[in-house]
Amino acid sequence: ATFQPELLTHILDGGAERTRRRKEIEALVINDPDFQHEDLNFLSRSQRYEQAIRKSSLMVMKLREYGIADPEEIYWFKSFVHRGRPEPLDLHLGMFLPTLLTQATPEQQDRFFMPAWNLEIIGTYAQTEMGHGTHLRGLETTATYDPATQEFILNSPTVTSIKWWPGGLGKTSNHAIVLAQLYTQGQCKGLHAFIVPIRQLGTHQPLPGITVGDIGPKFGYDEMDNGYLKMDNFRIPRENMLMKYAQVEPDGTYVKPVSDKLTYGTMVFIRSLIVGDSARSLSRACTIAIRYSAVRHQSELKPGEPEPQILDYQTQQYKLFPLLATAYAFHFVGAYIKTTYHRISGDISEGDLSELPELHALTAGLKAFTSWTANAGIEECRMACGGHGYSRCSGIPDIYVTFTPSCTYEGENTVMMLQTARFLVKSYTQVSSGQQVTGMVSYLNDLSRQRIQPQHVAARTVTVRINDPVSLVEAYKARAARLVEAAAKNLQAELNHRKSKEDAWNRTSVDLVRASEAHCHYVIVKLFTAKLSEVSNAAVRAVLTELCLLYALYGISKNTGDFLQAGILNDAQITQVNQRVKELLAIIRRNAVALVDSFDFHDVHLGSVLGRYDGNVYENLFEWAKKSPLNKTEVHESFHKHLKPMQSKL
Amino acid sequence: GVNPDLASERQTASFSVEKLTAWLDGGAENTLMRRAVVEAIERDPVFSRENQYFQSQNERYEAAVRKAVHLQKKMREMGWTENGPEYKYIYRALAGDVAFLLHRIFTRSISMLGSDKQITKWIPLASQYQLIGSYSQTELGHGTYLQGLETTAVFDITTQEFILNTPKISAMKWWPGDMGRSATHTVVFAQLYIHGKCYGVHPFIVQIRSLQDHSLCPGITAGDIGPKMSFEHTDNGFLMLQNVRVPRENMLNKFCEVHPDGTYVRSGSQKINYFTMTTVRISILSDEVIVPVMKACTIAIRYSAVRRQSKLKPGEQESKILDYQTQQEKLLPQLAAAYAFHFINDYLQELFDRAYRQIQKKNFDMLPELHALSSGFKAVVTQCCTSAVEICLRACGGHGYSLLSGLPSLYTKILASCIYEGENTILLLQTARFLIKCFMAASAGQPLPPSVTYLASVKPGRCPAKNKLHFLNSDIYTEAYQHMAARLVSSTATKLQDLIQSGVKKHDAWNQCTVQLAQAAKAHCHYITVKNFVETVEKLKTQAGIQKIMKHLCDLFALHGIFSNPGVFLHDGYLSGAQMDMVTASYLDLLPVIRKDAVPLVDAFDFTDKSLNSALGSYDGQVYQRLYEWAQKSPTNKQMSTAYEKYLKPLLHNKLSKL
């Protein structure tokens, strides 16, 4: 390696001190005998749930014992305890408690917060229904106010209105924050949140009028009891509606909330977490695949010589190194959104909401872009490990099944891309009408200038320097501008032909998604490039620059059509880009293992026989297999039950 | 009753579903036979897959063994045989969820690689299940690269035996199905040594478990390799051999023999080994790859016609998600691909049959082409279909993630096909090697095999299309594909030659071009797929009703390929930017046209609800009701979890002092 991996680790953690603290917390968990257990791959779903709930209870106690209260430190502790997997108290800690803090009145906080903090109340957040997910307005659960008794009557009027998917609902929780359409004085007032007790304190039996259970086995999330909830005329007191903003008075009078933009804040925050999660999940998969590719020898490159490491094959490098570069890119994007969110939420609390729409649009798109890319990338890593990648011991199947639902939850990705597109089209329209736009979309301002000088685009061709990240940012910018413009024009053309706005939008939506993707891609290349100048160590900066170039050039080589069609690059330049990508593969090869070591995943956290730090893959693969449940007895019982009788009969 | 949202989709079909089904089956009589087999299997409760999603690995394995044993009885009852026309339908009806599939490979390898004497000895034992076989090729350290296998078989003249050994941990046999728990015998591939000289990899029949009590034989360590992404029903195993002796007669010796004095004799052509691999690569495509993608399309498209979300027109009912352009753009190209690959499978099957007839006459001329096409298509079809199933899964949103949707199981199973029977990248490079060779031959004026004659006429050109409707002309897009494939092959060949001429060693030059070579191989297969789809549609002249919708699907398949890889068509100016916009427009225009027939097009695949085993995809579209009912059957809802008493109760009753 040409650089010190620790230095890069510090950059990823946000400083040497953060790294030290992370490792300290990691050691606390990993050396704690209470958190040890059998390999989860050998446990049934019930057993995995049980292990998770056992560890979660201990975790809550120990966090308080150690006085760990910083959100990021809690996050580390939790992910070491659960090894990056979900756990049954996720919704209690991540949604129930925060929602009480932000949406409950002081009186409600007195009643619910401390019991919930002390885990006498375990809550979940029941929003999604069987029939509706991302499209919240379509939710069907009703909460009808009865002024006579001053109660809300909750109902699940149809099969499709059954709450479906909330984590911790199936078996763990005794309360839920339920989102329902509020009806008072005969009118629907839209979605509101209600605190609903669902199980008897003490016996944990469902309350009368409540039907609750587990939704059954899933692709992953074995340790999570995602649940269903059906309510039949279930009554709760008026005081159980979360009333910090909207209110229903005792006589049924509805009081409107001041602003509904504030709920954006939470969504932005959670989606920004998914961007970070995309980076981490992809980093884990890259670590496993790259280490294994350095250990696995196969076939021959030169006749007569020993079998080479598979990492020396160009095709293997071409599969893995662009993903490695992507993982780094997403780390920096995740860090950027987090910082921006914290900065803007400062502004929000002072009443300045001006930057929120852009941040909201940007995180929606980046959530979709990064989760789609990481999802495909994890699979590519698994595939790059050949047959052994398919074994659960590789750890990649688990990373994949845990990560893949993030393409759906917190906003289905296509819908997210279209939200970003709406913002882009709006910005484009502003520019067309002579206004200036600011922020990440300010490149759209150039479009009006180009119209005055039509030769501008053609002139751009020769200006792209393929070894200069800054110049590549410009190329991505031009591509985004072109695709946004094309989508906006197609939308306008559809509007000119048809009456309905919705119909025109639908008929342009494939173009709109492409425009959003191009915009997000530009933002990522820009942020990665910007990060380079912040790195003080020359050796680290050099290796990050190589990764940044690979990320940008690989993106071009995968989307040559856009760059060619827009005249941003010509045939000869595309050939150069393709060639340069392959040269970079060879350059990055020598640092590849050091670059994944810099992610600094502990073996316990990585959970992979193929990705072990010491590279002793085959011995440990054998040791692992011997523990498989099918090997518990030498002769399997099915021999006596089925095989032997058949052999004697035939 | 049928959900009205699905019923309405069927009323407006532009063609007869029954006719399309019969055509896909290769004739109405095949449809009848298939339905009869499926019914007989599904009526039998032993074969039920109802609880599959709730079972552990151990339970799945046991059920698979039970089914395999019961199947023997069923086949006798029904008068079915392993070589009969019903057999493929049996396998399909069981969805492959049955043990002893490797037993068949064991039998087949003895039939192909064994002498008449060996066949007479082993085949009757195997077919009567007096022994259960497996097939042990892959090792911990080596898969596709067979020469690298490390297991050894040393000939001992004094006892006339081979001594088999696993010299190191990476040489352990790893992955063979049926070997972990079931098999009593296996065919072991090992490096043959005689008098200290290595003669390469050869097959040996080795007994691994006692026929009496199923305990492991002396010198044998074997077991299950542990949980995988799927195939819970299969006991993929490991095998370690320590000085295991087998008689000289146990080496399969149709093509090579070791005489008692240690003389090694080779007879027959080695090329025939390629033929075996080719056979397997083609034979997996239909049941392991194309059927799953058809099932995934059926589930996702039916569900998309039932799921309503958000509104397209204010004031109206929420819209079916199938009416959204983005949803159509996800699913309909996958549907078109399912059809395209079904036809490619027919094409390969036909090619294979022709080659087989020639080989029987000792003519091996067709082998290189067959080998190149079967390798390339194995890679391209498995990769495209795997990604298609994943797209279907994600297009079903949250509910797709539930095992009850059936999609996760289809996905985890199909994705193994990208690795087994040859890792895809390596296979593509084999195809590329053939293409480069043919290109060079063409430059030297030599004749070419039929599938690659186009390589002889590589020339610059421009697409003649003037408006978007021209792109619905199959000649226009077939030529675009041909041009693109030829350009990629020729530019890679040129680069390879340039590198070699500049002094780079041949193998280094090859490695430096592998990314491009793989791309060229894919382009070739893509072109053949489009061309074959076009020819298949042309042959449908007598069935106008079906031909029309097949033509739309063919157009969609071809234009989707251009739309998704615009760069390779724009690169040398074959298509202009303006033409690319025409392609996009034509492609997007096709989506709503095919959308109208989307449900009938998946109905035509004719899967029973039991074979789909999906809460989202059943024929009647009662999605939500079924999801709710199935969830209630989950063991997590039946048994009182001990977690409450053990962990939750203390947690909930916990007082502040404890925190």
Automatic annotation (TrEMBL), chain A:
Where does this chain mainly localize?
Answer: other
Gene Ontology biological process terms in this record: fatty acid beta-oxidation using acyl-CoA oxidase; lipid homeostasis; very long-chain fatty acid metabolic process
| Catalysed reactions, semicolon-separated | (5Z,8Z,11Z,14Z,17Z)-eicosapentaenoyl-CoA + O2 = (2E,5Z,8Z,11Z,14Z,17Z)-eicosahexaenoyl-CoA + H2O2; hexadecanoyl-CoA + O2 = (2E)-hexadecenoyl-CoA + H2O2; hexanoyl-CoA + O2 = (2E)-hexenoyl-CoA + H2O2; octadecanoyl-CoA + O2 = (2E)-octadecenoyl-CoA + H2O2
Recorded metabolic or biological pathway in which this protein acts: Lipid metabolism; peroxisomal fatty acid beta-oxidation
- Going by the entry's taxonomy, the superkingdom of the source organism is recorded as Eukaryota
User: Which EC class, in a word?
Assistant: oxidoreductase
Acyl-CoA oxidase C-alpha1 domain segment(s): 264-425
Cofactor(s) recorded in Swiss-Prot or TrEMBL: FAD
Q: Which residues form the Acyl-coenzyme A oxidase N-terminal domain?
A: 5-122
Q: Where in the cell is it found?
A: Peroxisome
Q: Which Gene Ontology terms of cellular component type are present?
A: peroxisome
Q: Any idea of its EC number?
A: 1.3.3.6
The record places domain Acyl-CoA oxidase/dehydrogenase middle at 125-233
What family, per the record?
A: Belongs to the acyl-CoA oxidase family.
Q: What is this protein called?
A: Peroxisomal acyl-coenzyme A oxidase 1
Query: Which gene specifies this protein's sequence?
Result: Acox1
Automatic annotation (TrEMBL), chain B:
> What biological processes does GO assign it?
fatty acid beta-oxidation using acyl-CoA oxidase; lipid homeostasis; very long-chain fatty acid metabolic process
Q: Which Gene Ontology cellular component terms are annotated?
A: peroxisome
Acyl-coenzyme A oxidase N-terminal domain location is 16-132
Q: What is its main location?
A: other
**Positions of the catalytic residues:** E421
**One MF term in GO for this entry?**
fatty acid binding
Keyword terms of this UniProt record: FAD, Fatty acid metabolism, Flavoprotein, Lipid metabolism, Oxidoreductase, Peroxisome, Phosphoprotein
Sequence ranges assigned to domain Acyl-CoA oxidase C-terminal in this UniProt record = 475-652
Q: Which InterPro entries match?
A: ACOX_C_alpha1, Acyl-CoA_ox_N, Acyl-CoA_Oxase/DH_mid-dom_sf, Acyl-CoA_oxidase, Acyl-CoA_oxidase_C, AcylCo_DH-like_C, AcylCoA_DH/ox_N_sf, AcylCoA_DH/oxidase_NM_dom_sf
Limits of the Acyl-CoA oxidase C-alpha1 domain: 274-436
Binding locations of FAD: T138, G177
Its required cofactor(s), as named, are: FAD
The cellular location(s) given in this protein's UniProt record come to: Peroxisome
Lipid metabolism among keywords? yes
* Sequence similarity: Belongs to the acyl-CoA oxidase family.
Show the PANTHER family listed in the entry: ELECTRON TRANSPORT OXIDOREDUCTASE, PEROXISOMAL ACYL-COENZYME A OXIDASE 2
Protein name in the entry: ACOX2 oxidase
What is the organism field in this record?
Answer: Baryphthengus martii
